[in-house]
Design a protein that fits this description.
Distance between the termini: 44 Å
Number of domains: 1
Oligomer: single chain
Structural class: alpha/beta
CATH superfamily: NAD(P)-binding Rossmann-like Domain
CATH class: Alpha Beta
Helix content: 40-55%
CATH topology: Rossmann fold
Number of helices: 8
Length: 260
């Protein structure tokens, strides 16, 4: 797929992976619809992209609300006539033992990481089916395949993203709509400062990748319609070692959590 002149929606676009993805896609000539709750950050991002090819449309709102997801897609279609790609990137983390997590935080995390993805997907699919093509890219995580202590619910939400994506892929196998999973590992973003229950990083032996590296993986997934993407070789290796030695990995990561 040629990214130039394509219409791409990116959720969670105000920072981190979302922002880096928007910048890269704009440089490649895409028309990018950006959304997040922080309208001021979206406006700053649009201003910083002035002079790059393509157009930008900023739509501030909460993707956890079904009505907003429908409005987002409707505005994108009204502005550009179609939606070629939806990047479901909006997400929220956790750094607290599951036994201590407040009920309202449980709801917030699942609404953001799972329900928001579902609402955006449901809103865009009728348009993609009508136009006869499209791609839905869901940003998962390697911890959707291997949980970490202090982030059990976050990991479970990413496992849900994996299963939703694979089921949707089967449901759409007779269409020209691609469903893609991207698995970042630890990433150098402000993600850790907004985690529910506590700031900072969860214990992990995995190295960090830049948000820009994740963005490049997303762009490659769009260009070649890839369906499963690991951002780094060591993310891929970690998840596969876990399948061979799950008890040992549990012990290592559990020990690290006790000293976190």
């Amino acid at each position: 797929m040629d990214i130039k002149n394509s219409v791409i929606i990116v959720t969670g676009a105000s920072a981190g992976i979302g922002e880096a993805t928007v910048r890269l896609l704009a440089e490649m000539g895409a028309n990018v619809v950006i959304t997040a709750r922080r309208a001021d950050r979206l406006a700053q991002l649009v201003d910083s992209l002035a002079g790059l090819p393509g157009r930008r449309l900023a739509v501030a709102g909460d993707i956890r609300e079904n009505a907003f997801a429908k409005e987002l897609v409707a505005r994108a279609v009204a502005e550009f006539g179609r939606v070629d790609v939806l990047v479901n990137n909006a997400g929220l983390g956790q750094r607290i033992f599951l036994s201590e997590m407040a009920p309202e935080d449980v709801t917030t995390l699942l609404d953001t990481n799972v329900n928001g993805l579902i609402w955006a997907t449901q809103a865009v699919l009728p348009h993609m089916k009508k136009q006869g093509s499209g791609q839905i890219i869901n940003i998962s995580s390697i911890v959707g395949q291997r949980p970490l202590a202090l982030s059990g619910l976050y990991c479970a939400s990413k496992t849900a993203v994996n299963f939703i994506s694979r089921a949707l892929r089967m449901e759409l196998q007779h269409s020209s709509i691609t469903v893609t999973l991207v698995y970042p590992g630890r990433t150098l973003t402000e993600f850790g400062t907004a985690r529910l229950g506590g700031k900072g990083d969860n214990p992990s032996p995995i190295g960090r990748a830049s948000a820009e590296k994740v963005a490049k993986s997303i762009a490659r997934a769009i260009r070649y319609h890839r369906i499963e993407v690991y951002v780094t070789w060591y993310d891929w290796l970690f998840t596969h070692i876990n399948r061979l030695f799950p008890r040992s990995i549990d012990w290592i990561l559990g020990k690290a959590a006790r000293f976190a």
